[in-house]
Amino acid sequence: RITGCSSPPGWLRMVAPGAFALLALTPGGDLSRFQYTEVHMGMQARIVVYAPDEPRARRAASAAFSRIGAVDAALSDYRRDSELMRLCDHAGEGPVKVSADLFRVLSRAQELAKWSDGAFDVTCGPVVALWRQARRTGRLPSDADRQAALKLVGWRNVVLHPSRREVELKMPGMRLDMGGIAKGYACDAAMKEIRWYGLRRAMVEMGGDLVVGDPPPGKAGWAIEMPNVEDPVDRVQYLSNVAVSTSGDTEQFVEIGGKRYSHIVDPRTGMGLTSRVAVTVIARKGEVSDGLSTALSVLGEDAERELARRFGALSVYIRRAD
Ligand code: ADP
Ligand code: MG
Known about the structure:
39% of the residues lie in helices and 24% in strands.
């Protein structure tokens, strides 16, 4: 029952009046837990949802997975036919009309680029490609290749025209890579879809990014284990209506000459990060937590406060393994 729910005080205020009525009709006690997984963006996407019955849960989850598929079709840099890759094909040719998804994520990315002074930069595609190649060959990119790739990098060469929803990539050969922000955005979009089905006690997770809605029935929040928090008090947190993202070089890297180079690059130098950093960000939206965790992986503690405040992050955890 709602009144018996040990939710944080902010929770009731966040529930829209319509949704409140709906929840009142289906008290938490009558909801069952359902879990679904599908592979998207090269990883397992997981949805947990509390619903009055299985068909309702399944319809919501299936709509959410379709939505993730649509976001992937727009933003993927692995799919040659994605909207993003078609946009890149027109680099240097003037403004191109894009979908609402692509425009929104690009706008957020540009904001992050501006405030991180280019540490987060979705034009880093050519550099990321070099490091993907390094992971395959086990050899560092040559200085010449790195310099050539860097010539195509620079967030200022992406120009957005909001009124016409157009994007202009100024230089031919530019390659955008939304890998640092797309999953968080996809989780947001999936959660929104689930809410359309009147279900609010839900969680969407993709790799290092997750978004939670209202808590499971009778719980204060979703028990989320923070991947790089050592302090036992902070390690498991009970969260609702937030997004949590973790970035870092702990899983994806190449080791060359005893040094670990991350799949996150510094767009200003073209080098893979070697700082062995892991960053977890809690924010209201996945598009913020995801992008910010990548940005802070590059910038570290120096930028933490400024960026966290600027983007409304709720908590930031930065861990270094030296
Ligand atoms: P993960 O994809 O492992 O969850 P991130 O959210 O940090 O981790 O995203 C890393 C991805 O972001 C890289 O694989 C690459 O596609 C892209 N990327 C790498 N460096 C940057 C950067 N400096 N700015 C923006 N995107 C980046
Ligand atoms: Mg990220």
